[in-house]
């Protein structure tokens, strides 16, 4: 993957990775870059600035999904009607580490067991 496509893909991933501490984010960015040839992107929806869309970036080291949803029970908070068309104002997203051994783990419980001061 080269040029603008790689830059756009990295922009999506970095929006999530950059939320980590700087040293962790740097390692994750480098991992993602090393696996660009094994990275796939799925896009559904519009491309206008305000279009609803779904995007998934999937590689051996990262899985990112962003999915515009239909307005839910709090739709009135952003001048929408519950059950209306998907909108960028109601987005679900996730970042995961494939093969990172985090599927099905109770990460918050694990944190509490190893960090008593955070209970």
Structure description:
The protein is of the alpha+beta class. The protein is 30% helix and 24% strand. The chain has three helices and four strands. The chain has helices at 3-17, 22-34, 107-114; strands at residues 40-45, 53-58, 63-69, 87-96. The chain has a four-stranded antiparallel β-sheet with strand order 1-2-3-4, with helices on one face. The longest helix is centred in the N-terminal third of the chain and has 15 residues, at 3-17. The chain is flat and about 45 Å long. The mean pLDDT is 87.
Structural class: alpha+beta
- The N- to C-terminal Cα distance equals 45 Å
Strand content: 15-25%
Low-confidence parts? none
Neighbour order of strands in the largest sheet = 1-2-3-4
Helix content: 25-40%
Q: How many strand units?
A: 4
Shape: flat
SS summary, helix count: 3
Instruction: Characterize the largest beta sheet: strand count, sense, and whether it forms a barrel.
Output: 4 strands, antiparallel
Radius of gyration from CA coordinates:
17 Å
Element order: H for helix, E for strand: HHEEEEH
Mean pLDDT equals 87
């Amino acid at each position: 993957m080269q040029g603008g496509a790689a830059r756009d893909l990295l922009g999506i991933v970095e929006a999530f990775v950059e939320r980590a501490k700087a040293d962790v984010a740097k390692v994750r960015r480098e991992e993602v870059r090393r696996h660009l040839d094994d990275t796939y992107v799925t896009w559904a929806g519009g491309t206008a600035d305000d279009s609803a869309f779904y995007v998934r970036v999937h590689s051996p080291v990262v899985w990112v999904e962003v999915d515009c949803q239909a307005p839910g029970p709090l739709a009135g908070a952003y001048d929408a009607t519950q059950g209306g068309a998907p909108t960028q104002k109601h987005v679900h997203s996730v970042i995961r580490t494939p093969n990172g051994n985090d599927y099905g783990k109770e990460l918050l419980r694990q944190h509490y067991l190893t960090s008593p001061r955070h209970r």
